[in-house]
Amino acid sequence: MIDIQQKLDVLDEFYCQKDNIENEKRALLDEVKIPAEVLAVQQKANEEAQAYASKQRKAAEQVRAECAAKLAEIKVPDEVREILARIDHERGLVMSYQREKESEIEQDVEQKRTALFNKAQFDTAKVYAEIEARKKEIAAEFAGKEQAAAENIAKLEAEIKAEVKAFGKSVKGNHFHAVYNKGRITWNTDKMEAWIVDHPFLKDARKEGEPSISIRRI
Length: 218
Fold this sequence. Notes:
The protein is mostly helical. Helix content is 73%, strand content 9%. It has a domain of 123 residues. A hairpin with a 3-residue loop joins strand 1 and strand 2. The longest helix is centred in the middle third of the chain and has 84 residues. The protein is elongated, with a radius of gyration of 42 Å.
């Protein structure tokens, strides 16, 4: 029994090793984060895009102001009603020019923003790839340790169950309790019905299952 108790204590050590491996793996994975300089590159690209957009919006405002001034200069003399059609045409040209320039500015801003973001993504792609590769290395490194720990646990649990089964009683260690459960007894109903009247030897129909062992953490 002492040997079984010792193995139960070793089993606790194996579980602790497994937990420590998992904690170490999780800590290393948590350390694999996006470097501050990479975030700074992305932040800089965003700030440049915003600054450029602000600058171009001012250009659009200037265009609108120029167009408003030109529209203000277009007078309609009371005595020249016949030129109203030409004035309306000129107004239409100015408004069309305004819409065209504003559209060009918006497209330019969007193209600039896209170019900046694409450059930032290109500049940081290597870092993201290195981070992903490091995470895979950590996972691969700990896969063997985790498997070895699990195999140690499975092997030792099998030995403990076999020895407790032979011992025939439950054994308690400092951290684990190997609980011995007697085999379940069942009866062959068909045999009993056929033989119970004429044959008292009912034990021929009696079946006893194998005992089972369950290991519980205390």
